[in-house]
Amino acid sequence: MQVYEELVARGLIAQVTNEEEIRNMINQGKAVFYIGFDPTADSLHVGHFMALCLMKRLQMAGNKPIALIGGGTAMIGDPSGRSDMRQMMTTETIAHNVECFKKQMSRFIDFSQDRAMLVNNAEWLLDLNYVEVLRDIGPHFSVNRMLTAECYKQRMEKGLSFLEFNYMIMQSYDFYELFRRYGCNMQFGGDDQWSNMLGGTELIRRKLGKDAHAMTITLLLNSEGKKMGKTQSGAVWLDPDKTSPFEFYQYWRNVADADVLKCLRMLTFLPFGQIEEMDSWEGSQLNQAKEILAYELTNLVHGPEEAKKAQEASKALFAGGGDATHMPSYELKEEDFRDGAIDILGVLTSSGLAGSRSEARRNVEQGGVSVDGVQEKDVKKTYTKEDFFGDGKVVKRGKKNFMRVFAR
After folding, report:
1. Which of 101-115, 361-375, 389-403 is predicted with the least confidence, judged by mean pLDDT?
2. Is it the case that residue 80 has pLDDT exceeding 70?
3. Which of 23, 41, 174, 180 is deepest in the core (most CB within 10 A)?
4. Please, where are the H alpha helices in 61-141?
5. First-to-last CA distance in the chain?
6. What proportions of the chain, in percent to the nearest 5, are helix, strand and coil?
């Protein structure tokens, strides 16, 4: 199976401009392609994960990726898929975020020996002459056609600023500049970017008389149709200081049964045949599939050592074995104890597993709390400081909230 056919089989491709030409280019390793990343934070997140995996797959097949950082467009704001206007950023913040991005991208993409490029569109966008843009680029865009784009339709209801209206032109100009400077002949992006991508292929055709191509990646949605990569506490980041390797592992370990095979197909580099064999798995086998998924993705992002630690900590949480030292932890302080003791409600509130003692009481009374794998329903249960020496105790509230609580 060649790389394009594998992308199709894994369910990664949503829309293409010319399938036959794109298939040939990718399979022959002749694609010089780019994917854009807006530096709106100092870390990439799970929403970027599929794009990074796609870049890795295509580079392994001999194609050349260009990671385009939107240092220029970030100063405008992308209305795609949004109902509000994005906060504008300073050049200093953008520069810092770009450095963070390259470090994370290097785990997926080989930038050595000109095998890939990292480019910032601020190089050409920030020095553009307004009158020249109106004269040279403006005639190639139809306002009527632009307003049919879904991203603009959504914003029109609340008011679309002229600033945001220019985003499609800027993104199209990016493709034009990348084609002209680096021979970039293909753009990849999320399905919500289709209109902007077509604008780029059209501008290249009108200005240069050449063909360029676009392909959108299937959005990573769960079985309920919601974007994956979000938790109650926010995004699942690739930066270990924002989302620890253990928390990252647990996110994938806890995906719904209906989503695990899809995630294995779309995100891992396991042989396609091996994943297809899992298609008939059910019951406890699905838990095994989730463990495989969690390990593979944690290994991709954080490396084998951290993946192994997270796996061991997960076993300690769910199976009673393994090493618990790498799961989220809380060290009890002297002020947490009263007369040398702390009750179960205090343990829950001090560690942050419950927001208040009344909430903690409800959790315990309803049977939702366990300590070292044993359900605790006694709200008056107390512990001494010595009980938390060594590795401490694994305290769990509900199915997915847990903490290693220890004392020194």
Report:
1. 389-403
2. no
3. 174
4. 91-105, 122-125, 130-136
5. 57
6. 50, 15, 35
Integer Cα distance of 78 and 121 in angstroms: 14
Q: Are strands 341-343 and 382-384 parallel, antiparallel or unpaired?
A: antiparallel
- Ranges of beta strands (E only) in 70-157 are 117-120
Task: Identify whether the C-beta of residue 217 lies closer than 8 Å to the C-beta of residue 50.
Answer: yes
By C-alpha distance, which of 236, 187, 181, 240 is closest to 211?
Answer: 187
217's enclosing H/E stretch is strand 213-217
Stretch among 22-36, 44-58, 93-107, 158-172 having the lowest mean pLDDT: 158-172
Tokens describing residue 219: 């959005």
Give the integer Cα–Cα distance in Å for 401 and 399. Answer: 6
- Alpha-carbon span 394 to 388, nearest angstrom: 10
42/40 Cα distance (integer angstroms): 7
Q: Which two tokens stand for residue 107?
A: 């785990």
Cα 86 to chain centroid, rounded: 19
Q: Which amino acid is at 194?
A: W
Q: Which candidate, 211, 307, 323, 205, places its Cα nearest to that of 252?
A: 307
The H or E element spanning position 404 is: strand 401-406
Band of residue 83 on the pLDDT scale cut at 50, 70, 90: very low
Predicted model pTM: 0.78
Burial 145-184 (b: 16+ CB within 10 A, else e): ebeebebbeebeeeebeeebbbbbbbbbbbbbbbbeeeeb
With a CB cutoff of 8 Å and minimum separation 6, the contacts of 371 are 344, 347, 393, 394, 395, 396
Give the mean pLDDT of the chain.
Answer: 87
The three-class DSSP label of residue 240 is coil
Q: Pick 47 or 12 by higher pLDDT.
A: 12
Axis crossing angle, helix 46-60 with helix 284-302, rounded to the nearest 10 = 80
The number of residues in the chain equals 408
Assess whether pLDDT exceeds 90 at residue 174: yes
Alpha carbon separation from 130 to 89, 140, 202 (Å, rounded): 21, 15, 21
The whole-angstrom separation of Cα 5 and Cα 166 is 36
CA distances from 346 to 257, 271, 285, 339, 355 (A): 35, 48, 38, 13, 11
**210: alpha, beta or left? (left if phi > 0; alpha if psi -120 to 50):** beta
Whole-number pLDDT of residue 380: 92
